[in-house]
Amino acid sequence: MLLGVATAATQIEGGEVDSTWVDWAARPGTIADGSSCTRATDHWNRWRQDTELMAGLGVQVYRLGLEWARLEPAPGTWDAEALAHYRAELELLREKGIRPLVTLHHFSQPMWFERGGGWLAPDAVGVFERYVRRVVEALGDLVDEWVTINEPNVYVVGAYVFGTFPPGRRNLVRAMRVYGVLAAAHIRAFMAIHELQPGPQTMVGVAHHLRPFRPANPRNPWHRILTPLMRHLFQGAIVRAMTTGEFRLPLRRPAGVERGRYADFFGLNYYSRTTVMRFGDGTPPGVPVNDLGWEVYAAGLGEMATWAWETYPIPIWITENGTADARDAFRSRYLYEHLRVIAEQRAAGVPIDRYYHWCFVDNWEWDEGEGPRFGLVALDYSTQERTVRKSGRFFAETIEAGGVTSQMYAAYVAGQTYPTSPADG
Fold it and tell me: Which Pfam family, just one, is annotated for this protein (predicted)?
């Protein structure tokens, strides 16, 4: 299994880009701490430093994103300097022996696309395919592994259910429509990439956010009914549509989409599980949690990987997994416990081939802003100084050793404990 890290362009690059998230962050009250992605980790200017740091930690694979708004600042107009910039970054990664996995859409899109109706515009799928084709034509000699769309369910829920992501339109009917359009966009992108890059080396998939759902009270009929319904609406329907082209209610099959297989690997993003009491993300009392109050439940990664493999028997890549831990007080334990679950899954025959830790350097965490700290490398936002955390050294040693020795466990994991969620009352 190959071990690496994952990032997203909007969360690390910085800069005044005419994107939906730069626009969203400029609106009062949208970001928890009032910060903007225009600062982030300044990776656009510090990519050489970050690549050297990754190489120094022994990172084998790296999932990075492209900022669509940089590459296509106006409809059909391409920025040659931005394309050259990404080429140079990919070339250095290859030179350092780090294999890139490129994400084409990670929550962010150009404002011209949004102003034209976004994913609800009649030509949205065609516009996205045009972007994908241009990128693959320009960078395909350096990349043959692609994530078309990151976490379509999280995007739709944030943008069209809770209104915490741009465009902030709370409308369940629109949410279901966008789900269908995103599935069609992925399928068209999948086919276009394979047309442009024929051959068995090309790998295309989606990074799906999956989580176990359980009723808060199994004896409560409302909790029991709501649990499978939320599971289906949040992940079951959209995963099936994107992977097989089969659309189940409440999704509608877009015109021109046929059933088939539209994934070469199953990208699995895993962070936590949901305890169902109502529509929303619930956490029970007295369980291990991270800085954001998300339950730490490592066994859920195994549950989701098993479900993915049994339902869609293709290789599984853990395209994101990590935790918010500003003091680095439990990240090594979190890493160890989740990697141990993966090892158990592999021993049981589940083909988990990659693990991408979220994230490399502390990054701008969408509507939460600069507060949450997910990085193996700590960031001082005011100076942009990077400092490898103890958990970062643990991850580097795990890569080098091909596992965790008893000495490493004693040095990095033993003694680490999680905070817990508040008890009832």
Answer: Glyco_hydro_1
CA-to-CA distance for 373 and 378, rounded, in angstroms? 8
Q: Judge contact between 324 and 283, C-beta under 8 A.
A: no
The verdict on residue 422 lying in a domain is no
Token pair in block for residue 119: 């994913």
CA 343 to chain centre: 22
Q: How many separate domains does the chain show?
A: 1
Per-residue tokens: 78: 């391409």
- Angstrom distances, CA of residue 79 to CA of 84, 90, 371: 9, 17, 32
How far apart are the C-alpha atoms of 325 and 419, rounded to whole Å? 10
Of how many residues is the chain composed?
A: 425
In a domain, 298, yes or no: yes
DSSP letters, 73-137, are SBTTB--HHHHHHHHHHHHHHHHTT-EEEEEEESS--BHHHHHTTGGGSTTHHHHHHHHHHHHHH
Interacting residues of 62 by C-beta distance below 8 A, sequence separation 6+: 4, 5, 6, 7, 54, 93, 98, 99, 100, 101, 356, 360
Residue 281 has pLDDT above 70, yes or no: no
Residue 172 falls inside a structural domain = yes
CA atoms of 325 and 398, how far apart (whole Å): 19
CATH code, 256: 3.20.20.80
Q: Which two tokens stand for residue 118?
A: 């976004």
Position 380 in a domain: yes
Neighbours of 313 (CB within 10 A): 11
Residue 259: which domain range?
2-413
- Dihedral pair phi/psi, residue 162, rounded to 5°: -95, -15
In degrees rounded to 5, what are phi and psi of residue 423? -75, 165
The pLDDT tens digits for 305-345 are: 999 999 999 999 999 999 999 999 999 999 999 999 999 99
